[in-house]
Amino acid sequence: IKAVGENPQKPMGGEKITGGYLAPALNGTGHGWHHPNEMLFTIIRDGSVAEDSQMKGFKERLSDDEILYTIHYFQSFWPKRIMDRRNASTN
């Protein structure tokens, strides 16, 4: 199973018992599909806006094109119903 997040029983992510945050699922069951592509791009490039998040940016390791390919890759796991809802909310 791909893109299930750090804890498949908690696809939306959440807080870890030890502190910090669980990585959410990126397969359409987490909350990532609510975010516009521009926001997803910024989070991947620059890291999370939450100061206590472990999500660091990848701008030193991925080109802008590679970040876009990454977004398209995990979006390929999203069910049609999620893509339809997402597309309806952006129109």
Could you characterize what this model shows?
The protein has 91 residues and is mainly alpha-helical. 36% of the residues lie in helices and 4% in strands. The chain has a two-stranded antiparallel ribbon. A hairpin with a 5-residue loop joins strand 1 (14-15) and strand 2. The termini are far apart.
TL;DR of this structure?
This protein has about 90 residues and is mostly helical. The protein contains three helices and two strands.
Radius of gyration: 13 Å
Number of strands: 2
Tell me the quaternary state: single chain
The largest beta-sheet arranges its strands as: 1-2
- What is the molecular shape? globular
* Count of alpha/pi helices: 3
Mean pLDDT, all residues: 91
Poorly predicted parts:
none
Share of helix, binned = 25-40%
Strand content: under 5%
Span between termini: 31 Å
Largest sheet: 2 strands, antiparallel
Keywords:
4% strand; two-stranded antiparallel sheet; mainly alpha; 2 strands
Topology at a glance:
Elements: E1 14-15, E2 21-22, H1 37-46, H2 64-75, H3 80-90
Antiparallel strand pairs: 1-2
Helix pairs in contact: 1-2
